[in-house]
Design brief:
Layout (H helix, E strand, L loop, with lengths): L3 E2 L5 H11 L5 H13 L2 E5 H8 L9 H11 L3 E2 L2 E4 L10 E4 L1 H10 L4 E7 L4
Parallel strand pairs: 1-3, 4-6
Antiparallel strand pairs: 2-6, 4-5
Helix pairs in contact: 1-2, 3-5, 4-5
């Protein structure tokens, strides 16, 4: 079954992204980065490439959140696009999945070549 996507991230996704990013960034940078995510255009990236760039392991289908997203995919419900903060090839900083890690994993388990709509920005200062 093909993964279906909403046209834009849901409002609560930005709050979740801010919560996560506040663990690794300063408040000012988090605020401006989340604002940039809100206004960024969507782009498509492959599930396998997102996981690789983020240096994250694929969560199993038995993970409760992944299982929930797989159920949504099976029932034809649309998933919210992913929010990403670009890593740095010079310093070796990994891509950050600010919101949507479980959705990426569910998409990968459905088809690793799934094109995932995402908002991708660099850290803002």
């Amino acid at each position: 079954m093909a993964v279906k996507w909403l046209d834009a991230p849901e409002d609560h996704d930005y709050a979740a992204a801010a919560d996560y990013l506040s663990l690794i960034g300063e408040d000012h940078a988090v605020g401006t980065t989340v604002a940039a995510l809100r206004s960024a255009d969507s782009t498509l990236r492959k599930a396998k490439d997102i996981l690789r760039a983020a240096r994250l392991d694929l969560l199993p289908a038995t993970n409760a959140r992944v299982k929930g997203d797989l159920s949504k995919i099976d029932s034809g419900k649309k998933l919210s696009p992913i929010l990403l903060v670009r890593g740095d090839g010079v310093t070796g900083a990994a891509l950050q999945i600010a919101d949507g890690y479980h959705r990426v994993c569910a998409s990968y388990l459905t088809d690793e070549d799934t094109d995932i709509p995402c908002r991708l920005v660099s850290w803002q200062s």
